[in-house]
Design brief:
Strand content: 15-25%
CATH class of the largest domain: Alpha Beta
Helix content: 25-40%
CATH topology of the largest domain: FAD/NAD(P)-binding domain
Radius of gyration: 24 Å
Distance between the termini: 52 Å
CATH architecture of the largest domain: 3-Layer(bba) Sandwich
CATH superfamily of the largest domain: FAD/NAD(P)-binding domain
Strand order of the largest sheet: 5-2-1-9-20
Number of strands: 25
Number of helices: 13
């Protein structure tokens, strides 16, 4: 599709991740002249080093786990040993091949996204951009040795979507070999013998789950009382049960004071003085926005103490004409939210109709095994009186399709407004919960009642039938 450009409105986008990518496409759709500045590759860390690679690794881990569990369905794998007896074969994971595949997939996704931008009419500048006041961007395109290594780009609207990087602790500096950030995991050639994961948030839980299925011994160190401290308590408890059953070592209420390399091993020293020794350590202790040194404060853009850009619901910053989207801004650090913010920013700047981000309608998913998907108000908010609602939980084990597929761990939970029965939230803990959450998200978005949700015809048997069954159980008597 081609567009006629309005040369009177120039949009510069810093960062080509989900937020910057969607902002650029929205800009050309609106008829503006759009320049996108990206230093590592279109798609940003979400595509190249974070979401796409990690979910590809997790897909391999889930496949490995499925092979291990397939005996429940009556399927047996066997090979003859040296005595001619049939024995179960050993499952081996070629991590070098896995990592090569995931990097190829990530790179191809980046190439496809770049091609789509170029075909749409977006000018792409490879380099590092910084603001030179509110209406101009300076791009370093080389090593800065000559005048030709810099571009000066005038901007009527600037969208900052520079993302974030793994947080590094001075007492646990990554070396890329044994002490790793999540960006460095994909350089490993072999499955770690014993990986210690420091941090029990989403990133830590996902990788701990994946490497357990890949065959690693895993120790998960959490400074909080439980895994996933900010998530649904029932889901977190279920995941801990699965982790322990799978042989994972959980060290809750334990803070890692330092991580040191000892030859081919790593030693994690905890705050109580005890030590955990393993072959590798993954530091999953949060992220730092990539906002330092790019001229934001000089341009009048307000930042938080941690460096996040303060934005409102239409992605506007404190400086007119400058917007921010994604992990560098004060909003939910989700690729889907970043993309929405990017589009919203450009629509707002160009005077088009906008739909501000509504946090209560945002779905999120944790790609553990089982997955945990959520939307809307939480059970804790209901219990604390922040929201008025009823809670119903349906164990997945009661669902006929789950029984057929030998799925024992999981549940569907619905939250409905007291009195009216309007669906205000939900949680799904299940394989492919990320796919199953959509009907609940639609119900929340469009304020459907449990009776309206229950009237939808789900296939029998299906996992989605658990959603309509839960809704039916919450019927509001007329």
């Amino acid at each position: 599709m081609s567009y006629e450009f309005d040369r009177n409105h120039r949009i510069v986008v810093l960062g080509g991740g989900p937020g910057g990518y969607e902002a650029a496409l929205a800009g050309v759709q609106q008829g503006a002249e759009v320049t996108l500045v990206e230093r590592t590759g279109v798609g940003g860390s979400a595509v190249l080093t974070d979401v796409v690679p990690s979910k590809t690794l997790i897909a391999t881990a889930n496949a490995t786990g499925a092979i291990q569990r397939i005996a429940r369905l009556g399927v047996r794998f066997s090979v003859p040993n040296e005595h001619g007896r049939q024995v179960a074969p050993e499952i081996a994971v070629d991590l070098r091949t896995v990592n090569r595949r995931l990097k190829e997939l990530a790179n191809q996704q980046s190439v496809d996204m770049r091609a789509n931008l170029e075909q749409s009419g977006v000018r792409i500048v490879d380099g590092t951009g910084r603001l030179d006041g509110p209406g101009r961007v300076i791009v370093s395109t080389g090593h800065g040795r000559t005048a030709h290594d810099f571009d000066e780009i005038e901007a009527d609207t600037t969208v900052v979507a520079v993302g974030a990087s793994p947080r590094k602790l001075p007492t646990a500096m990554p070396d890329g070999e044994r002490i790793l950030t999540w960006k460095q995991l994909y350089e490993l050639d072999e499955v770690p013998e014993h990986i210690i994961v420091v941090g029990s948030g989403v990133t830590g839980a996902e990788f701990a789950s994946a490497y357990m299925q890949l065959g690693s011994e895993v120790t998960l160190i959490s400074s909080r009382d439980r895994v996933l401290p900010g998530e649904d308590a029932d889901a977190a408890e279920l995941l801990e049960e699965v982790f322990v059953r799978g042989g994972m070592h959980l060290r809750s209420r334990s803070r890692a004071e330092k991580v040191e390399r000892d030859g081919d091993s790593v030693v994690v020293t905890l705050s109580d003085g005890s030590e955990v020794r393993g072959s590798h350590c993954l530091m999953a202790v949060g992220a730092v926005p990539n906002t330092a040194g790019i001229g934001l404060e000089e341009a009048g853009v307000q930042l938080t103490a941690s460096g996040l850009i303060r934005v409102n619901r239409v992605a506007s910053t404190s400086r007119p004409g400058i917007y921010a989207a994604g992990d560098c801004a004060t909003f939910l650090p989700l690729a889907s939210v970043a993309a929405h913010q990017g589009r919203t920013a450009v629509f707002h700047a160009m005077g088009d109709a906008v739909v501000p981000v509504e946090v209560r309608n945002v779905t999120s998913n944790i790609f553990t095994a089982p997955e945990i998907a959520t939307v809307g108000w939480t059970q804790k908010q209901i219990e604390d009186g922040i929201a008025q609602g009823e809670v119903y939980k349906l164990p997945l084990a009661s669902n006929p399709r789950a029984k057929i597929q030998s799925m024992h761990d999981g549940f569907v939970k619905l939250f409905a407004r007291t009195g009216s029965g309007t669906v205000i939230g939900g949680v799904i803990a299940s394989p492919r919960a990320s796919e199953l959450i959509l009907p609940i998200a639609l119900a929340v978005e469009h304020r459907l009642t449990v009776d309206q949700l229950a009237r939808a015809f789900s296939v029998y048997p299906s996992l989605s039938g658990a959603i309509t069954d839960a809704a039916r159980a919450m019927h509001i008597v007329a």
